[in-house]
From TrEMBL:
Residues 11-178 form the Glycosyltransferase subfamily 4-like N-terminal domain. It comes from the Bacteria. GO terms for molecular function: glycosyltransferase activity. The gene is bshA. Residues 192-350 form the Glycosyl transferase family domain. This is N-acetyl-alpha-D-glucosaminyl L-malate synthase BshA.
Length: 375
């Protein structure tokens, strides 16, 4: 099929999922067109089957807010017509489903019918989308989508609680591509980060409030009082500066490494012993899944869709939001004994493999086929 994918091109989970999905679809012979304001971060190669169309929003002094939705919907109309696109898959409802709906309507004027699949990712529902400023538009665009998917059962339930949804919501979980994690990749370069006797704990995110960054620092502080350890913080966002200050105040700045945004997540996870994800809310926790496929157990909060990924006592532990004592205790339980750590590492990979893209891709293909047939 000829598929247009709309997503955020940044380091956020929804953009990563959209990009990896697009690459996998192209590898299966589909023609994939990404439409967004910048080349997605994980889209390194534009091959024969993969195209990228940049949305430009010209600055005009009259506008206090530049109208991205308008530019996106116009770009979609042009791209769909020019390339004979058969289906539109938008990731993250705001404003993508809204812009997609406008594009659909404009195309219908010319007797072109393109179905729209909307995938809900999390904060588009649980944080931003439910705000009264956005809620009517989000409800409308979800209801106008031909098929709606959510990345976890929990997100589906939350969506039905928050919005008046008339559509069915199909759960299609996030995934990993196991071919990228070949056994041959053993060059972990652990020595770059820590001494042999130190355990390496990692966190990766966009450093927003919802990630509860101070909890990470405080859990690590407790752990490093008991065993030699380093904390590797990957990503960037509004909470980063405060986190650096907190490390200074706790006197652990020399044991915490802030790496900023990285395209080498797998290399970092390769030398990690434990992953921390104490988020306030998390629809799925793709970062946890990426840790797990790299044999890194997860200490997380017990919230949203995380329990669908991180299994209590098997791949890691889940605690109540903000219970840093319990998180530190569980981290030490895993890290203090090599045999226990090995078991958790093996389990993490085993469970992560159940989210193989080869299982998830056919679900999307079936949805596309169904949406196309009912257009
Ligand atoms: O806050 C983030 O982690 C970014 C956000 C996004 O949409 O880019 O992530 C959401 O979508 C991911 C991919 O489906 C999920 O794995 C994350 O759990 C979800 N984040 C939240 O719900 C906070």
């Amino acid at each position: 099929m000829k598929i247009a994918i709309v997503c955020y091109p940044t380091f956020g989970g929804s953009g990563v999922v959209a990009t990896e999905l697009g690459i996998a679809l192209a590898n299966r012979g589909h023609e994939v067109h990404f439409v967004t304001y910048r080349q997605p971060v994980r889209l390194e190669l534009l091959g024969n089957n993969i195209h990228f169309h940049e949305v430009h929003v010209p600055e005009y002094p009259l506008f206090k807010y530049q109208p991205y939705e308008l530019a996106l919907s116009s770009k979609l109309v042009d791209t769909i017509k020019l390339h004979g696109i058969e289906l539109l898959h938008v990731h993250y409802a705001i404003p993508h489903a809204y812009a997609g709906y406008m594009a659909k309507k404009m195309l219908e004027e010319e007797q072109i019918h393109v179905p729209m699949v909307t995938t809900l990712h999390g904060t588009d529902i649980t944080l931003v989308g439910k705000h009264p400023f956005y809620k009517p538009a989000v409800t409308f665009s979800i209801n106008q989508s031909d098929v709606v998917t959510s990345v976890s059962q929990n997100l589906k339930e939350r969506t039905l609680e928050i919005f008046d949804i008339k559509n069915d919501i199909e759960v299609v979980p996030n995934f990993i591509d196991k071919t990228k994690y070949s056994e041959a990749f053993t060059d972990c370069q652990r020595a770059l980060m820590a001494n042999d006797d130190e355990k390496i704990i990692t966190h990766i995110s966009n450093f927003r409030k919802v990630k509860r960054i101070p909890d990470i620092i405080r859990v690590f502080d407790k752990v490093q009082k008991e065993i030699p350890a380093k904390l590797v913080m990957v990503g960037d966002g509004p909470e980063k500066e405060g986190a650096e200050e907190l490390c200074e105040r706790l006197g652990i700045a020399d044991r915490v490494i802030f790496l900023g945004n990285s395209n080498e997540i797998d290399r970092i996870l390769c030398f990690s012993d434990l992953f921390l994800l104490p988020s306030e809310s998390e629809s799925f926790g793709l970062a946890a899944l990426e840790a797990m496929i790299n044999e890194v157990p997860v200490i997380s909060s017990n919230t949203g869709g995380i329990p669908e990924v991180n299994r209590q006592g098997i791949t890691g532990y889940l605690s109540n939001i903000g219970d840093i004592d319990d998180m530190a205790k569980n981290a030490l339980k895993i890290l203090s004994d090599e045999k226990t750590l090995r078991t958790f590492k093996d389990n993490a990979k085993k469970v992560a493999l159940t989210f193989d893209i080869l299982k998830v891709l056919p679900l999307y293909e079936e949805i596309y086929k169904r949406a196309y047939e009912k257009r």
